[in-house]
Structure formats: structure tokens, C-alpha cells
Design goal:
It is built from 14 helices and twelve strands. By secondary structure, the chain is α+β, with helices and mostly antiparallel strands. Helix 1 (3-16) crosses helix 2, helix 1 packs across helix 12 (323-359) and helix 2 (18-57) packs antiparallel against helix 10. The longest helix has 44 residues, at 265-308.
Length: 405
């Protein structure tokens, strides 16, 4: 019997016993679907992070009071550090030769009001000049905030397109006065839309000069300072220059830990890889258990098949079939059965990932390597767990097999 006939017999058995086949393949379907779905989400997240986050600020790092905090003990220690101030920003602007932009920044959440329209909990950004370069913002109408706005503590603002649409509708936004919290500001610019990141709009904000922000909303407190290095290669040098300047301003001795924090895109990428790696390992573990259960069920159904077809095996051997022919026949049948479950798992897992991606902020992308992996894994499960029933069928004595009732 050639492999094509074996595949036909296996598929015929699946069609003839649909419920039993589905139950037999359930473990394989769940296992492969889990792998495909997770790989699709990881692939989509990788591409999303690379396109949206790293490309926007790959050579930007941020200095602040806290840095990257991972425990309560670190937070308690960071609270004791001195605040990061505008004087620090001025010192970095003068001393970090490998930075093209130094932007002090702070934030809050305030209501906006124009006539009888009110927007609640809008992100309020206080930014120094150059924030558009660091934040990758392009102006759509009007202008960005300038150093003169900052130096004069002007009551002017730039708003995102979502705020402009909700506050003004079809009216032009430029030149109009809005209430930002309790204070009146004039709109001097509207930015182009940037879309959403993980479901969070990047276009619902109002940005005011940093000194104006400090005047109205934050008399005391710590700032963060974003620095953009000349290029990606000079990022470590710029970070070290910033570290030396801030340590000097805080009179820190050699060996003392920094009394401030520095984070960059690699910091967040490390966290991202840790989180996605943990999810990936956990899911692979669950998928492995499902595949093990699925393989055992395939072995069980193949043992039943060998028993039910004992006389057929005896007849084939009596007609000249060799052991390896019988072995190959049942191996092909087991592999076909498992591969059928794998294909269903690929379709189910890929479809689930794309559906969730379409209905939620989670990005998903079904990749060819993931599909190939699903096919290889399901085929391997069929070969491994089909080997014992196949060897058992191949070793049957033809005389005893022909006598089997």
C-alpha cells in the first residue's frame, strides 16, 4: 500500500467517525492553536513596538528622579533623592555635547472647556522648546511652542486633533481661547493625528510651555528631562555626559549610586522582552501538555484501529506485505490524523488572533514560520505517538491475525 492510499484511509476514518475524530484531535488542535495564537500576538507586538515606539525615539533617553522602579524598596530610596529641576535641564543643555535637544517636561490631567463644551481628564503636558522633535509631533495648523513662549510664560497652547474635533467641531481652532483647568489659554497650533497605542489615543492632549506649567500647576516637584542624542551611536556617550553632570551637581562621590534615574528605549524593550518571554514560555508549557494529551489520544485510537483491523493486517501479510509496509501504513495514518488536527489548530489559532486583533488594541500578525512550526509539531506528534501502534501492527503474526475474530 502506498502512502497515498494510507492517507486516504486515514481521512476516510476521520470522515466516517467525525465526533470520535474531533475528540481524538482536540488536544492537538488546542496545543497548535495556542502556539499559533501566541506567536501571532508576539509577532504583531514586536512589529508594533519597533514601528511605533523605537522609531519615534530610538536615540532619546529620559532623566528623572525615579528611573526604572521595580520594587517598593527602590521606590522608598528614590523618594529621598533631590528633585530634577529646570536648573538641571539648563546644565545638561550647556554640558551634554552629544545631545541635539534637551527638553524639560511635566504632566497632569485637567478638564478643558470652550463655551458650553467640556472635556474631562485631558492630558496636560508642560514642555520645553524642541518637544516636537522628541515626541515626533508634526504641526497640522498654526505653529509649535517656542523658546519665547516659554521664557515669557505665555498662556498659549498646542492641542491634539482629537481635542480640536471635540471642542470646536467644524470651527477653526487656531486663535481661539479655551479654559485649561482654571486658566485661559490661546490655541496657537494643532498637531497631525498619530493614532492610538494599545488603545490609548495619542491625539487627546494639550501642551503648554514648561515654565507656564510650573507657574500654574506645579510650584514644587520634580521634572523629567528628555534628551535626544546626535544619533543612535552617540547615545551611550550622551548618557554618560548627562550622568557626570548630574552627579557633579549633586556632589556625589565615586562609588555612590546615582541620585537620579536614566531610562531609554532599551530599558522598556528589556521589560517588554521579559514580559512577552514569560507569556511565551507559559503558553508553550500549556501547549506542550495539550499536545501530550493529544498524542496519547492518537496513540489510543490507533491501537483501537490495529485491533479492529487485525484480520486485514493478516490478509495483507498473507498476500506478501512486509513488516515495513504495515509499519509505514499505520505511521502515515497516525501522522495524517495528527496533521489534520494541526491544520485545524492553525486555522483556529490564526483566526482567533486576527479576530482579537481586529476587535481590540492588541496587534496580531500570523507569520509563515509560525504556520510551518504548527505543521512540523503536529506531524512530529503523529510520528512519535503513532510509532508504538505501528510497530505493534507490523509485528503481528499473520496466522494469528487471520484467526482473529
Amino acid at each position: 500500500m502506498n502512502p497515498r492510499e494510507s492517507i486516504g484511509i486515514a481521512l476516510g476514518g476521520v470522515r466516517a467517525n467525525k465526533l470520535r475524530s474531533v475528540l481524538t484531535l482536540l488536544g492537538t488542535i488546542i496545543g497548535v492553536a495556542s502556539v499559533i495564537a501566541v506567536l501571532s500576538f508576539v509577532e504583531g507586538l514586536n512589529r508594533f513596538v519597533t514601528d511605533k515606539l523605537l522609531n519615534a525615539g530610538a536615540n532619546v533617553f529620559v532623566v528623572d528622579k525615579f528611573g526604572f522602579i521595580t520594587s517598593r524598596e527602590q521606590f522608598d530610596e528614590a523618594v529621598k533623592r533631590p528633585d530634577v529641576t529646570l536648573a538641571d535641564a539648563d546644565a545638561l543643555r550647556d554640558g551634554v555635547t552629544h545631545a541635539t535637544m534637551v527638553v524639560p517636561q511635566a504632566g497632569a490631567s485637567v478638564p478643558l472647556r470652550f463655551r458650553n463644551r467640556t472635556l474631562k481628564a485631558v492630558t496636560l503636558n508642560g514642555r520645553g522648546a524642541g518637544y516636537d522633535v522628541v515626541d515626533d509631533l508634526t504641526i497640522d495648523d498654526g505653529r509649535h511652542l517656542s523658546e519665547f513662549d516659554d521664557a515669557g510664560r505665555s498662556a498659549v497652547c498646542v492641542i491634539g486633533p482629537e481635542v480640536a474635533d471635540e471642542l470646536f467641531g467644524s470651527l477653526p481652532a487656531l486663535g481661539r481661547f479655551i479654559r485649561v483647568g482654571e486658566y485661559e489659554f490661546q490655541v496657537v497650533g494643532v498637531t497631525k493625528a498619530k493614532g492610538k497605542v494599545f488603545g490609548q489615543s495619542q491625539d487627546r492632549f494639550v501642551t503648554v510651555p514648561i515654565r507656564t506649567f510650573l507657574k500654574y500647576w506645579m510650584e514644587r516637584g520634580s521634572l523629567s528631562i528628555a534628551l535626544k542624542s546626535v544619533d543612535q551611536a552617540s547615545l551611550p556617550v550622551a548618557e554618560q555626559e548627562a550622568r557626570n553632570i548630574l552627579r557633579g551637581r549633586r556632589h556625589q562621590r565615586p562609588g555612590q549610586p546615582d541620585a537620579f534615574g536614566i531610562t531609554n528605549s532599551e530599558t522598556w524593550m528589556t521589560l517588554y522582552r521579559t514580559v512577552t518571554g514569560g507569556i511565551f514560555v507559559l503558553t508553550i508549557g500549556i501547549a506542550a501538555i495539550s499536545l501530550l494529551v493529544g498524542g496519547i489520544m492518537i496513540m489510543n485510537i490507533m491501537l483501537v484501529s490495529v485491533t479492529e483491523r487485525t484480520r486485514e493486517i493478516g490478509i495483507r501479510k498473507a498476500l506478501g506485505a512486509r513488516r515495513r509496509d504495515i509499519l509505514m501504513q499505520f505511521l502515515v495514518e497516525a501522522t495524517t490524523l495528527s496533521l489534520s488536527g494541526g491544520i485545524l489548530g492553525i486555522l483556529f489559532g490564526g483566526g482567533l488572533a486576527l479576530l482579537v486583533g481586529a476587535l481590540s488594541p492588541l496587534p496580531a500578525e500570523v507569520s509563515l514560520p509560525a504556520v510551518v512550526l504548527g505543521i512540523v509539531v503536529s506531524s512530529g506528534v503523529g510520528v512519535f505517538f503513532g510509532s508504538y501502534p505501528a510497530f505493534r501492527a507490523a509485528r503481528l503474526d499473520p496466522i494469528e491475525a487471520l484467526r482473529y475474530e
